[in-house]
UniProtKB/TrEMBL annotation, chain A:
InterPro entries: Ribosomal_uL10, Ribosomal_uL10-like_sf, Ribosomal_uL10_bac_type. The keyword Metal-binding does not apply. It comes from Menura novaehollandiae. The gene is Mrpl10. Keywords: Ribonucleoprotein, Ribosomal protein. This is Large ribosomal subunit protein uL10m.
UniProtKB/TrEMBL annotation, chain B:
One of its GO terms (molecular function) is structural constituent of ribosome. Belongs to the universal ribosomal protein uL16 family. InterPro entries: Ribosomal_uL16, Ribosomal_uL16_bact-type, Ribosomal_uL16_dom, Ribosomal_uL16_sf. This is Large ribosomal subunit protein uL16m. It comes from the Eukaryota. GO terms for cellular component: mitochondrial inner membrane; mitochondrial large ribosomal subunit. PANTHER family: 50S/60S RIBOSOMAL PROTEIN L16 (PTHR12220), LARGE RIBOSOMAL SUBUNIT PROTEIN UL16M (PTHR12220:SF13). One of its GO terms (biological process) is mitochondrial translation. Coiled coil: none annotated. It comes from Menura novaehollandiae.
Length: 254, 247
């Protein structure tokens, strides 16, 4: 029946909840949030979680640098390829690359291939360490934006400039030709120079100019004498009609 | 009045410091995930659970709400799958909920590469209802329907297979929202992290006064206002609710 039931058990009375609390209110498990006794609320407020507070907040401590990320095998392969390219080519031109249609890119590559110039797409993060350790250290400032390398075992700057002039999306920044770093102006000047064979021929011609004149110089005296005597003979023949020239005069001088 | 709003400005990782300029770098080639140690059950989809048990109960059983109260002792860890729905409160699941779970998960998984497994039994607890509009008295009402009791910390369903948590999480979250108790989608790793976090919080709590300490030593006669179950529940549970913020 209703009403508090006295408990007869060996356990002390303090073990059981107070009967007055059992009498009022709903059951222990309800669908709604059952209102807590104020003492219980105070206990919960007292025993809340307090997070640890270090003397120095973590944002004031020096931020540990991110550990060097794992060396990517792919990056190593690309770096090796870049080293190979730099070692094997005489001319390396660095150009800024803006996106262009694929077919135009293929056409550009075709025209450059005709002059034995290869187009290489490089990533700055791959190429920069390669350059820093090789002798092309001074080319580092050029590798900032998206760029391509035009490499060739021959130095045909004139054809390269001619092809690049037609393509507005690729701008020449600088080049390294035969271990000489050239700016854009330098490349243009270099292109205007005559080719190596022509300049070699010119040098040889200039050097051999004087020796070629030696034989004519030596022969100048006798040739002049021969011409004078011939002139004299002709004049005497003209006036020969009456008198006969005395023999043995032509061979008087030796 | 609801108005269509444009989404906010796109901040590419900048925030208060500035806008980060997007940069292209070397493509990081990662290996595909390894799904070698996964065993598929015979039927990948969830089994149909009956509304009424095969042998319907004759004797009406008492309400016994203690099957909702407190933490769960069964089905707290993963068995077959990698991802699941964790209950963060107690409640009863009836046939409607179970059908919703079965159909939603059946629609969202690909049976060739994913599977799902029940972690709750079919409804077996009978719930009685008196007809509406009558006064109190006249005995216990007849059996209305059957339910399954779920305590907090129990897994409801498990999903596994050749899939990632990010693929599974959307539909598990949608299912979890429709359940009568708060629930979240979890994976094996996230459950372990949650437990570790709780343990860390318990250890580095700077408050010298904990509920457990006060209750076990009956400081200030607090047990007059608390239940004997609070010795076990340690202030983290109140009725069927699980108080996640409490240590």
């Amino acid at each position: 029946g209703p009403g508090p039931v006295p408990v007869l058990s060996a356990a002390p009375a303090a073990w059981l909840p107070a009967l007055q609390l059992l009498r009022r209110g709903s059951k222990a498990v309800t669908r709604h949030w059952k209102a807590m006794h104020f003492q219980r609320q105070k206990l919960l407020a007292l025993t809340e979680y307090l997070p640890p507070r270090p003397a120095l907040p973590p944002r004031c401590l020096p931020r540990d640098t991110p550990t060097a990320h794992q060396e990517d095998g792919y990056a190593r392969v690309l770096r090796r390829q870049a080293e190979e390219v730099f070692r094997s080519s005489r001319m390396v031109a660095v150009c800024q690359y803006n996106s262009m249609p694929d077919e135009d890119l293929v056409t550009l590559q075709h025209y450059l291939r005709k002059h034995n110039i290869h187009v290489k797409f490089v990533l700055n993060e791959v190429v920069r360490p390669v350059l820093a350790q090789s002798k092309y250290r001074n080319l580092l400032p050029l590798f900032v934006c998206r760029n391509i390398l035009l490499v060739s075992p021959e130095t045909r700057a004139r054809e390269m400039l001619r092809v690049l002039k037609r393509v507005p999306q690729v701008n020449l920044l600088g080049a390294c030709i035969d271990d000489t770093i050239l700016s854009r102006q330098g490349v243009e000047n270099f292109a205007r120079l005559p080719s190596l064979e022509a300049s070699q021929g010119q040098t040889v011609g200039a050097l051999s100019l004087l020796p070629s004149q030696t034989s004519s110089l030596l022969q100048q005296g006798p040739a002049h004498l021969t011409a004078l005597l011939d002139e004299h003979i002709r004049r005497l023949r003209d006036t020969e009609g009456s008198t006969e020239p005395p023999p043995g005069q032509g061979t008087g001088n030796h | 009045m609801w108005r269509w709003r444009l989404p906010g400005l796109l901040r590419a990782g900048g925030g208060p410091g500035g806008v980060a300029v997007p940069r292209a770098g070397l493509k990081k080639l990662t290996l595909p995930p390894d799904y070698s140690g996964i065993t598929f059950p015979e039927k990948p989809k969830l089994k149909f659970l009956d509304k009424v048990p095969a042998v319907p109960k004759v004797q009406r059983e008492p309400r016994r709400l203690r099957d909702i109260r407190g933490p769960s002792q069964v089905a707290t860890d993963f068995i077959q799958g990698q991802y699941g729905i964790l209950a963060l409160g107690g409640g009863y699941l009836h046939w409607g909920h179970l059908e919703m779970i079965r159909l939603t998960i059946g629609r969202s998984i690909d049976p060739k590469s994913m599977f799902a497994v029940w972690r709750v039994p079919a409804p077996c607890k009978s719930v009685t209802r008196k007809s509406l509009g009558h006064r109190m008295g006249g005995g216990k009402g007849p059996i209305d329907h059957y339910v399954t009791a779920v305590k907090s910390g129990r897994l409801v369903v498990e999903v596994g297979g050749r899939c990632e948590f990010e693929e599974v999480r959307p539909f598990l979250a949608r299912v979890a929202q429709k359940l009568p108790f708060p629930a979240i989608p979890v994976s094996r790793e996230s459950l372990q992290e949650m437990r570790q976090e709780e343990e860390e919080k318990r250890l580095n709590n700077q408050n010298p006064w904990t509920f457990e300490r006060v209750v076990t030593s009956n400081m200030l006669g607090m047990r007059k206002y608390l239940s004997p179950y609070d010795l076990r529940l340690k202030g983290r549970y109140w009725g069927k609710f699980f108080l996640k913020h409490r240590v």
